[in-house]
Amino acid sequence: MGNIEIVGLVAATLTTSAFVPQVYKAFKNKSTKDVSLTMYTVFLAGTILWLIYGINIQSLSVILANGITSLLAILMLMLKIKYK
Amino acid sequence: MGNIEIVGLVAATLTTSAFVPQVYKAFKNKSTKDVSLTMYTVFLAGTILWLIYGINIQSLSVILANGITSLLAILMLMLKIKYK
């Protein structure tokens, strides 16, 4: 695997795992007032399309990154709706 | 341009523009208590790596999407620090 593919994998890991501290903060504080519902709705639509794109081009990293990010975005939406 | 490339472009547009409503909400309400500083720090590191990746593989859509997302993430970090 070339160096640049490693950069891509690290980038995917960072932009995916970045959502974990946000989900944790919302869950711990039971407060999401400042979090934008529109953001996570639009973002989820995007990650689902990326998932379709990744399946089509048969790219495991695009599939994995956007599969996990979609789950995290769904979790955030649930927390946002529950703790308006 | 094949259909799947259009899906990729729409996905990139959605996952990039999704941050605009969050930046607007933080700016309008002058409140970011529920927004995770860790998320936007880790996310920014990821988008910068995606930018490097995009430049290396000479992909305009990866460069554009992650260039704009990096700017939005920097804006969110500034708003988060300003309106703790």
Give a structural overview:
2 copies of one chain form a homodimer. Chain A has 84 residues and is an all-alpha fold. Chain A has a single domain, classed as Up-down Bundle (Monooxygenase). In chain A, 82% of the residues lie in helices and 0% in strands. Chain A contains 4 helices and no strands. Chain A has helices at residues 3-17, 19-29, 37-56, 60-82. In chain A, helix 1 (3-17) runs parallel beside helix 4 (60-82) and helix 2 (19-29) packs parallel to helix 4 (60-82). The radius of gyration of chain A is 14 Å and the shape is elongated. Chain A starts with a helix and ends with a helix. The relative contact order of chain A is 0.18. The A-B interface holds A 4, 7-8, 10-22, 24-26, 29, 31-36, 38-40, 42-43, 45-47, 49-50, 52-53, 56-57 and B 4, 7-8, 10-19, 21-22, 24-26, 29, 31-36, 38-40, 42-43, 45-47, 49-50, 52-53, 56-57.
